[in-house]
Amino acid sequence: MTKTYSISIFMLVLFLNACNSKNDKVKVATSPEIASPYLGEQPPGLIPVPFAPGIVTTKNWEWSGGFTPNLKEFHFIRKVGEVEGNKKQEFVVIQHKNNRWQESVISSRVEQPFISPDGKTMHLGKTYKERIPTGWSEIKKLGSPFEKIRIMRLTVSSKETYVFDEVTAEGDGILRYSRLIDGKREEPRPFGKEINTGKWNAHPFISPDESYILWDGQRDNGYGDADIYISFRAEDGSWDKAINLGDKINTEAAEASASVTPDGKYLFFNRNSIDNYENVDIFWVDAQIIETLRPDQKVVSEN
Prior knowledge:
mainly beta, five-stranded antiparallel beta sheet, 2 helices, 24 strands, globular, disordered N terminus
């Protein structure tokens, strides 16, 4: 199986499973008392390590982890088996309550979750939930112009700019953005060649201040399968040429679905440990690695 074929199947399995699943009843498991934040884990340095071994990262398959702004909820996707050759997955949240981290299986929906910088919205591709006093609302649709777009991951800045991937009819991926201008959502636009170069560009993350974008894709100068790249916004509002995050992050395996914690301290991402994505783990690393790549110039957000 070629690398291109393997990652395309991986992306499409996530997307198709999300489209065909239905909500399940919540299941809860309570851990022993663990200090907050970050599930009581020792923070990493500049070398990535698996996040929360035995709690989040296991011998199974985990994907797309992220915290809420108050660092009291961690959401991720977990594989729990296979049904007719397709991965059976759960959408999991681990919440810090009464000095304990309590795990709940929310549903079998597997759209990749992203919590808005203000913590009020959980984006799930082209759907979303809103924070309500009892937790999260029922799923709502973004509506036009996103209804017919095949989105795997949508992220949003503090200025409510959407940055998301689109799976094309050919199975490839490109990144697009949509700004909120005078209270109106603009039609999605593709990023330029600085970002949309190579194949399988997917799973973007835009920083809250819009000073950089992270994403994964395949390029001829990469380290193996999918690598994670970053583009910084220049002083004139344009996007700089993509930078590979380097061999401390990227390997011969596939790295994907990067994001930075709401406090800006840690970079989370996924890495498959063996071929064909039979074991995908969530890693974390000090976000200072991003600052070492930032150009020596002032970066500004777009007006």
